[in-house]
Amino acid sequence: MPRKKETITLSIPPGTKEKLEAIARNLNIYWGKDPSISGLIVAIAQKSVEVGISFTLDSNQVNALQQAIKALSDAGRIGEAQTVVTLLLERGNLNAAMRQSLLKQASRLVQAWRSQIDEYRQNQQPFHLLYENSQGQELLYTVRYAEPCFFDKRFYLMIWCEETEDVEDLIPKLPELWHNRNLIFDRIRSIVPASGEWREGLDSIKVYLHFRGWMVKSYQRREDDLEDEIIGDVRQVVRRVVNELWLIREVARYWDECEIVSPEPMRDRLKQKIRTLCDLYDIETKRL
Question: Which of 10, 68, 187, 287 has a CA 20 to 30 Å removed from the CA of 127?
């Protein structure tokens, strides 16, 4: 028998509903795809989450605590040093520069971060990750799922992160993949534990591919292929895709013997690449 649920009616000022949804979103409390105010109220009643005003620190206070972290580290009390770092990151209401400075200091606490990531994965422990991309930009991610992947003769770390701002303009028509990142291990600068829930996997989309010519027989089925069948003179493969760049690089190897059929935003990504290539080589293309 399903448990009987009680209902309550709340009278709240204008704008409060949006603020409650924002808190639920930050705490990863959802009903389906939407932040759940009911779930937030239950979590507060059960004392599984804490709500309150974050404390604010100025640069002098942060510097003093950084010295305290260093002293704990020098004394061999690494776990306590990491606890202070995590507390500051999650409750200190710090600006971006201060958060990155703390993560840089944390990188000196955890030298064997690859092993640490494996441990976090086994324990389903979310973590903050500081990453330096190929352009020298430092990006901070809150990771709620991670798995190593092998592609193009190299191991990468695939993550699901809360942050989306750095890719929304890059792939605006593929919001389903905004939370996924493909990271090079050597560019990870620091990791520290984070609070919240661990996810079951990466986001993904289904992509329909048509292989023609030699590829009809020579294509080798992959682990992430969901369907694979011959339809006339075409081999249709339905694949689970977590990274659009990897797919485009693979399709580019096959030239006209592989076509992205759907979804349309994925076709558009390849069209954009082809048009840019044609512009570089002074090839006229029909613009839609």
Answer: 68
